[in-house]
Amino acid sequence: MTAARGWYHAEGDPPGTVRLWNGEQWVGFPQRDPEAAMAAEKVLLGPARGQQRLKPWGVLAMIGLVGPALAYLFQVYVLVRILQVMGRYEGQKLEAVFTAEPDQVIVDVVVLQVIAFGAVAGLSALAGLLFIPWFFVAYLNLSKWTRTRYETWWAILAWLIPFINLRRPSHIMQELCESSPRPDREGEINPVAAWAWWIAWLTASTGVQILQWWAFNSADFATVQMILIIACGLCVLASISAILGLRLVWQISWHQDLRFKREAVASSTASLATV
Length: 275
Prior knowledge:
With 275 residues, the chain is mostly helical. Helices cover 67% and strands 5% of the residues. The chain has helices at 34-45, 55-88, 94-99, 104-145, 154-157, 168-179, 192-216, 221-257, 262-273; strands at 6-8, 18-21, 26-31. Strand 2 and strand 3 form a beta hairpin. It is elongated and about 85 Å long. Residues 263-275 have low confidence and may be disordered.
């Protein structure tokens, strides 16, 4: 069917009924008269019973995500400084460099690295504490107007259980992207963004752990330089992931809270009267 958005009789529905066609697929259930159809539209577009406003939780989550984004960029700056310092000692053994008389430049970059490590760890933990409550409330809201793939408590447990936390958070985020917009705004959040966010975060966080182990177990100067260069790229990727997450939080929060805007619902239902 290629008709414009509106109320039509759907093949297979009872005679004398109409159903909402959003331009791409049928939405909701068959209705027997226009007034019932408009009432059903208000339910589809309006807030569900028990739905919470997501914006306050979203603001906290976005504030939390700004921290890691900046912390990882600061870590890139520190790694570049370390590479510059290492360039001064190229050709020497690492053991000899660090056992010699302390150089003030080396001391400075070591202090900067300790600060960067603390900033990344602390701000990432804070981001998790602020992001997960938003994630749970968003998925709880979603369960009020559609059947969710998982029970709502998985929005919390999915982050805590080993191996499950490698995939399930991305599944839930993708579901939020697909089902948070109202029927008249379907497709306005690209679910591919959820996969991009998760793959970037998983690659960066896992890669950094592997590189740390590799660096501590390597005494070769060139190898450590290569590790630091790769680490710079992963830190940039982690910062991009935080920015993608921030955008997803804003989009999902905006679309879910749009159900509370009565003027938007009224204008949508008024346009149905002319169909």
